[in-house]
Protein backbone atom coordinates (compact mmCIF):
# COMPACT_ATOMS: atom_id res chain seq x y z
CA UNK A 1 0.00 0.00 0.00
CA UNK A 2 1.36 3.43 -1.00
CA UNK A 3 0.47 6.23 1.42
CA UNK A 4 0.93 10.00 1.29
CA UNK A 5 1.14 11.87 4.60
CA UNK A 6 1.00 15.67 4.68
CA UNK A 7 1.46 18.43 7.24
CA UNK A 8 2.09 22.15 7.51
CA UNK A 9 5.08 22.54 9.84
CA UNK A 10 8.85 22.11 9.60
CA UNK A 11 11.07 19.19 10.48
CA UNK A 12 11.45 20.06 14.17
CA UNK A 13 7.68 20.32 14.79
CA UNK A 14 6.11 17.81 17.18
CA UNK A 15 3.51 17.16 14.47
CA UNK A 16 6.13 16.43 11.83
CA UNK A 17 7.86 14.11 14.28
CA UNK A 18 4.49 12.43 14.80
CA UNK A 19 4.09 11.96 11.04
CA UNK A 20 7.53 10.37 10.81
CA UNK A 21 6.72 8.08 13.71
CA UNK A 22 3.50 7.07 11.94
CA UNK A 23 5.45 6.51 8.72
CA UNK A 24 7.95 4.26 10.48
CA UNK A 25 5.17 2.11 11.92
CA UNK A 26 3.40 1.88 8.57
CA UNK A 27 6.65 1.05 6.77
CA UNK A 28 7.32 -1.71 9.28
CA UNK A 29 3.87 -3.10 8.45
CA UNK A 30 4.76 -3.22 4.75
CA UNK A 31 3.47 0.10 3.39
CA UNK A 32 5.36 2.47 1.11
CA UNK A 33 5.09 5.92 2.68
CA UNK A 34 5.69 9.40 1.24
CA UNK A 35 5.74 12.45 3.52
CA UNK A 36 5.18 16.10 2.62
CA UNK A 37 6.27 17.77 5.84
CA UNK A 38 5.16 21.33 5.11
CA UNK A 39 2.73 22.23 2.32
CA UNK A 40 3.21 25.93 3.07
CA UNK A 41 6.86 25.68 1.97
CA UNK A 42 5.65 25.34 -1.63
CA UNK A 43 3.03 28.06 -1.34
CA UNK A 44 0.07 26.00 -0.15
CA UNK A 45 -2.11 26.83 2.84
CA UNK A 46 -2.52 24.78 5.97
CA UNK A 47 -6.30 24.96 5.74
CA UNK A 48 -6.23 23.40 2.26
CA UNK A 49 -4.96 20.13 3.73
CA UNK A 50 -8.52 19.02 4.41
CA UNK A 51 -9.27 19.49 0.72
CA UNK A 52 -6.15 17.50 -0.19
CA UNK A 53 -7.41 14.57 1.87
CA UNK A 54 -10.97 14.87 0.61
CA UNK A 55 -9.65 14.84 -2.97
CA UNK A 56 -7.06 12.17 -2.06
CA UNK A 57 -4.08 14.31 -3.03
CA UNK A 58 -2.95 13.14 0.42
CA UNK A 59 -4.23 10.07 2.22
CA UNK A 60 -3.56 11.28 5.77
CA UNK A 61 -2.91 14.66 7.36
CA UNK A 62 -3.08 16.43 10.70
CA UNK A 63 -4.91 19.70 11.22
CA UNK A 64 -5.81 21.91 14.18
CA UNK A 65 -9.38 20.95 15.07
CA UNK A 66 -10.37 24.60 15.13
CA UNK A 67 -10.15 24.79 11.35
CA UNK A 68 -13.04 22.31 11.10
CA UNK A 69 -15.37 23.66 13.79
CA UNK A 70 -17.47 25.63 11.29
CA UNK A 71 -18.33 22.31 9.60
CA UNK A 72 -18.57 20.25 12.79
CA UNK A 73 -20.07 22.48 15.50
CA UNK A 74 -19.53 19.94 18.30
CA UNK A 75 -15.77 20.46 17.92
CA UNK A 76 -16.36 23.77 19.70
CA UNK A 77 -16.00 21.83 22.94
CA UNK A 78 -12.28 21.65 22.11
CA UNK A 79 -12.12 25.41 21.46
CA UNK A 80 -13.61 26.62 24.75
CA UNK A 81 -11.22 28.96 26.55
CA UNK A 82 -9.97 28.42 30.10
CA UNK A 83 -11.70 25.05 30.56
CA UNK A 84 -8.78 22.61 30.24
CA UNK A 85 -5.75 22.83 32.50
CA UNK A 86 -4.81 19.14 32.66
CA UNK A 87 -3.74 17.93 29.22
CA UNK A 88 -3.35 14.32 30.39
CA UNK A 89 -6.97 14.28 31.51
CA UNK A 90 -7.94 15.73 28.12
CA UNK A 91 -5.96 12.98 26.38
CA UNK A 92 -7.82 10.31 28.33
CA UNK A 93 -11.20 11.86 27.50
CA UNK A 94 -10.30 11.95 23.81
CA UNK A 95 -9.28 8.30 23.93
CA UNK A 96 -12.64 7.39 25.44
CA UNK A 97 -16.22 8.65 25.14
CA UNK A 98 -15.55 12.26 24.17
CA UNK A 99 -13.29 11.16 21.34
CA UNK A 100 -15.79 8.61 20.07
CA UNK A 101 -18.60 11.16 20.01
CA UNK A 102 -16.47 13.74 18.20
CA UNK A 103 -15.14 11.22 15.67
CA UNK A 104 -18.69 10.14 14.86
CA UNK A 105 -19.70 13.77 14.27
CA UNK A 106 -16.66 14.50 12.11
CA UNK A 107 -17.29 11.48 9.90
CA UNK A 108 -21.02 12.12 9.59
CA UNK A 109 -20.64 15.80 8.72
CA UNK A 110 -17.47 15.78 6.61
CA UNK A 111 -16.77 12.25 5.41
CA UNK A 112 -13.42 12.35 7.21
CA UNK A 113 -12.28 9.54 9.49
CA UNK A 114 -10.43 10.49 12.69
CA UNK A 115 -7.38 8.30 13.26
CA UNK A 116 -6.23 10.15 16.36
CA UNK A 117 -6.46 13.25 18.50
CA UNK A 118 -3.03 14.86 18.69
CA UNK A 119 -1.75 17.36 21.26
CA UNK A 120 -1.64 20.83 19.72
CA UNK A 121 -0.37 22.43 22.91
CA UNK A 122 -1.49 24.95 25.46
CA UNK A 123 -1.86 28.28 23.69
CA UNK A 124 -0.12 31.32 25.18
CA UNK A 125 0.11 34.96 24.10
CA UNK A 126 3.23 36.72 22.83
CA UNK A 127 3.43 40.37 21.85
CA UNK A 128 5.83 43.12 20.84
CA UNK A 129 4.48 45.93 23.01
CA UNK A 130 4.37 45.21 26.73
CA UNK A 131 3.98 42.55 29.42
CA UNK A 132 0.39 41.32 29.49
CA UNK A 133 -0.76 40.45 33.00
CA UNK A 134 -4.53 40.97 32.79
CA UNK A 135 -7.34 41.29 30.28
CA UNK A 136 -7.06 45.04 30.62
CA UNK A 137 -3.52 44.89 29.19
CA UNK A 138 -4.91 43.36 25.97
CA UNK A 139 -7.00 46.38 25.12
CA UNK A 140 -6.49 47.63 21.58
CA UNK A 141 -3.72 45.21 20.58
CA UNK A 142 -4.11 43.53 17.17
CA UNK A 143 -3.63 39.79 17.58
CA UNK A 144 -3.22 37.09 14.96
CA UNK A 145 -5.24 33.92 15.38
CA UNK A 146 -6.51 31.10 13.21
CA UNK A 147 -9.70 30.92 11.19
CA UNK A 148 -12.03 29.91 14.00
CA UNK A 149 -14.88 32.10 15.21
CA UNK A 150 -14.67 30.98 18.84
CA UNK A 151 -10.95 31.74 18.99
CA UNK A 152 -11.66 35.19 17.55
CA UNK A 153 -14.55 35.83 19.94
CA UNK A 154 -12.46 34.74 22.93
CA UNK A 155 -9.63 37.10 22.08
CA UNK A 156 -12.07 39.93 21.43
CA UNK A 157 -13.59 39.29 24.86
CA UNK A 158 -10.11 39.68 26.36
CA UNK A 159 -9.88 43.10 24.66
CA UNK A 160 -7.78 42.26 21.59
CA UNK A 161 -8.57 43.11 17.97
CA UNK A 162 -8.28 39.63 16.36
CA UNK A 163 -7.23 39.13 12.75
CA UNK A 164 -6.91 35.86 10.83
CA UNK A 165 -3.95 34.66 8.79
CA UNK A 166 -3.05 31.23 7.54
CA UNK A 167 0.03 29.58 9.03
CA UNK A 168 1.78 30.33 5.73
CA UNK A 169 1.52 34.08 6.44
CA UNK A 170 2.06 34.02 10.22
CA UNK A 171 5.76 34.87 10.28
CA UNK A 172 5.38 37.82 7.90
CA UNK A 173 2.46 39.23 9.91
CA UNK A 174 4.54 39.14 13.09
CA UNK A 175 7.85 40.29 11.57
CA UNK A 176 6.29 43.21 9.70
CA UNK A 177 4.40 44.50 12.73
CA UNK A 178 1.08 43.99 10.98
CA UNK A 179 -0.03 42.39 14.25
CA UNK A 180 0.98 43.37 17.78
CA UNK A 181 0.42 39.93 19.29
CA UNK A 182 -0.18 36.29 18.43
CA UNK A 183 -1.28 33.18 20.33
CA UNK A 184 0.22 29.75 19.86
CA UNK A 185 1.77 26.83 21.69
CA UNK A 186 5.32 27.50 22.87
CA UNK A 187 6.77 25.18 20.25
CA UNK A 188 5.28 27.27 17.43
CA UNK A 189 6.36 30.57 18.96
CA UNK A 190 9.92 29.20 19.10
CA UNK A 191 10.13 27.18 15.89
CA UNK A 192 8.56 29.88 13.71
CA UNK A 193 11.01 32.41 15.17
CA UNK A 194 8.20 34.62 16.45
CA UNK A 195 10.12 35.32 19.67
CA UNK A 196 12.66 37.29 17.65
CA UNK A 197 9.99 39.98 17.19
CA UNK A 198 7.81 39.37 20.25
CA UNK A 199 9.87 39.75 23.41
CA UNK A 200 6.95 39.43 25.83
CA UNK A 201 5.25 36.11 26.56
CA UNK A 202 2.29 35.57 28.87
CA UNK A 203 1.60 32.00 29.98
CA UNK A 204 -2.16 32.26 29.73
CA UNK A 205 -2.80 28.67 28.62
CA UNK A 206 -6.13 30.06 27.47
CA UNK A 207 -6.92 27.16 25.09
CA UNK A 208 -5.65 23.60 24.99
CA UNK A 209 -5.33 22.86 21.31
CA UNK A 210 -6.17 19.54 19.68
CA UNK A 211 -5.07 18.45 16.21
CA UNK A 212 -6.99 15.82 14.26
CA UNK A 213 -5.14 13.07 12.45
CA UNK A 214 -7.53 12.28 9.62
CA UNK A 215 -8.10 10.41 6.39
CA UNK A 216 -11.01 10.13 3.98
CA UNK A 217 -13.61 7.80 5.49
CA UNK A 218 -14.59 6.19 2.18
CA UNK A 219 -10.93 5.45 1.45
CA UNK A 220 -10.42 3.96 4.91
CA UNK A 221 -13.54 1.78 4.58
CA UNK A 222 -12.26 0.50 1.24
CA UNK A 223 -9.03 -0.87 2.73
CA UNK A 224 -8.68 -4.62 3.24
CA UNK A 225 -9.21 -5.55 6.89
CA UNK A 226 -5.53 -6.27 7.47
CA UNK A 227 -4.42 -2.90 6.07
CA UNK A 228 -7.13 -0.99 7.97
CA UNK A 229 -6.09 -2.73 11.19
CA UNK A 230 -2.42 -1.95 10.58
CA UNK A 231 -3.23 1.73 9.94
CA UNK A 232 -5.40 1.98 13.05
CA UNK A 233 -2.69 0.39 15.18
CA UNK A 234 0.05 2.60 13.73
CA UNK A 235 -2.07 5.73 14.22
CA UNK A 236 -2.74 4.81 17.85
CA UNK A 237 0.99 4.35 18.51
CA UNK A 238 1.84 7.59 16.68
CA UNK A 239 -0.76 9.49 18.70
CA UNK A 240 0.81 8.38 21.98
CA UNK A 241 4.27 9.26 20.68
CA UNK A 242 3.19 12.68 19.39
CA UNK A 243 1.62 13.58 22.72
CA UNK A 244 4.87 12.70 24.42
CA UNK A 245 6.80 14.89 21.99
CA UNK A 246 4.40 17.79 22.72
CA UNK A 247 4.77 17.55 26.50
CA UNK A 248 8.57 17.32 26.27
CA UNK A 249 8.73 20.21 23.82
CA UNK A 250 6.73 22.49 26.12
CA UNK A 251 9.34 22.04 28.83
CA UNK A 252 12.36 22.62 26.60
CA UNK A 253 10.80 25.43 24.54
CA UNK A 254 10.13 27.59 27.58
CA UNK A 255 13.73 27.23 28.75
CA UNK A 256 15.03 28.14 25.31
CA UNK A 257 12.76 31.18 25.05
CA UNK A 258 13.98 32.44 28.41
CA UNK A 259 17.60 31.82 27.42
CA UNK A 260 17.05 33.99 24.33
CA UNK A 261 15.86 36.91 26.44
CA UNK A 262 12.10 36.62 26.14
CA UNK A 263 10.36 38.19 29.15
CA UNK A 264 7.99 35.52 30.49
CA UNK A 265 5.02 36.33 32.70
CA UNK A 266 4.20 33.11 34.54
CA UNK A 267 0.61 32.03 35.06
CA UNK A 268 0.80 32.66 38.82
CA UNK A 269 1.72 36.28 38.05
CA UNK A 270 -1.26 36.77 35.75
CA UNK A 271 -4.65 38.08 36.83
CA UNK A 272 -6.36 34.97 35.49
CA UNK A 273 -9.63 36.01 37.12
CA UNK A 274 -9.83 38.95 34.74
CA UNK A 275 -9.52 36.61 31.74
CA UNK A 276 -12.04 34.17 33.21
CA UNK A 277 -14.55 36.93 33.90
CA UNK A 278 -14.16 38.32 30.37
CA UNK A 279 -14.70 34.89 28.81
CA UNK A 280 -17.50 33.66 31.11
CA UNK A 281 -20.50 34.82 29.02
CA UNK A 282 -18.95 33.33 25.89
CA UNK A 283 -18.30 29.98 27.59
CA UNK A 284 -21.85 29.81 28.92
CA UNK A 285 -23.34 30.60 25.53
CA UNK A 286 -21.26 27.99 23.72
CA UNK A 287 -21.87 25.30 26.35
CA UNK A 288 -25.59 25.81 25.82
CA UNK A 289 -25.15 24.70 22.20
CA UNK A 290 -23.06 21.58 22.92
CA UNK A 291 -24.53 18.18 23.69
CA UNK A 292 -24.47 17.73 27.46
CA UNK A 293 -23.07 14.19 27.25
CA UNK A 294 -20.16 15.42 25.13
CA UNK A 295 -19.45 18.39 27.40
CA UNK A 296 -19.44 16.17 30.49
CA UNK A 297 -17.30 13.52 28.78
CA UNK A 298 -14.63 16.03 27.77
CA UNK A 299 -14.71 18.69 30.46
CA UNK A 300 -16.12 16.82 33.45
CA UNK A 301 -18.97 17.87 35.69
CA UNK A 302 -16.90 20.30 37.78
CA UNK A 303 -15.85 22.31 34.73
CA UNK A 304 -19.29 22.36 33.13
CA UNK A 305 -20.90 23.59 36.32
CA UNK A 306 -18.20 26.05 37.45
CA UNK A 307 -18.19 28.70 34.74
CA UNK A 308 -17.57 31.99 36.58
CA UNK A 309 -20.38 34.53 36.61
Descriptive report:
There is one protein chain. The model has no long low-confidence stretch (mean pLDDT 94). With 309 residues, the chain is α/β, with parallel strands linked by helices. The chain has helices at residues 14-28, 49-54, 87-95, 97-110, 149-158, 170-175, 186-191, 217-222, 225-259, 272-287, 292-299, 301-305, and strands at 2-6, 32-36, 60-64, 112-127, 142-145, 161-164, 181-184, 200-216, 263-265. The protein is built from twelve helices and nine strands. The longest helix has 35 residues, at 225-259. Strands 1, 2, 3, 4, 5, 6, 7, 8 and 9 form a nine-stranded mixed sheet that branches.
Helices and strands in order:
Blueprint (H helix, E strand, L loop, with lengths): L1 E5 L7 H15 L3 E5 L12 H6 L5 E5 L22 H9 L1 H14 L1 E16 L14 E4 L3 H10 L2 E4 L5 H6 L5 E4 L1 H6 L8 E17 H6 L2 H35 L3 E3 L6 H16 L4 H8 L1 H5 L4
**How many strand units?**
9
Span of the ends, CA to CA: 54 Å
Question: What oligomerization state is this entry in?
Answer: single chain
What is the N-to-C succession of helices and strands? EHEHEHHEEHEHEHEHHEHHH
Main structural class: alpha/beta
Separate helix tally: 12
Q: What brief labels describe this structure?
A:
309 residues, alpha/beta, 9-stranded mixed β-sheet, 44% helix, globular
Question: Summarize this, please?
Answer:
This protein is an alpha/beta fold and 309 residues long. It has helices at residues 14-28, 49-54, 87-95, 97-110, 149-158, 170-175, 186-191, 217-222, 225-259, 272-287, 292-299, 301-305, and strands at residues 2-6, 32-36, 60-64, 112-127, 142-145, 161-164, 181-184, 200-216, 263-265.
Amino acid sequence: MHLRLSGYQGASSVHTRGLHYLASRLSAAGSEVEIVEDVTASGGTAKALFEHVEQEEAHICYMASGYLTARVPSLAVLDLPLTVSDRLKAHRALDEKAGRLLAEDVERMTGLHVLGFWDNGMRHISNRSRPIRSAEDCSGLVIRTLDNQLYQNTLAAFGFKPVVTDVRDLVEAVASGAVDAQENPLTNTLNFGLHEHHRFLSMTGHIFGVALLICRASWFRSLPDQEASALTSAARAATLAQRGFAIEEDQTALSRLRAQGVQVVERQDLDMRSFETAAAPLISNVLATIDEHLALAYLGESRVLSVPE
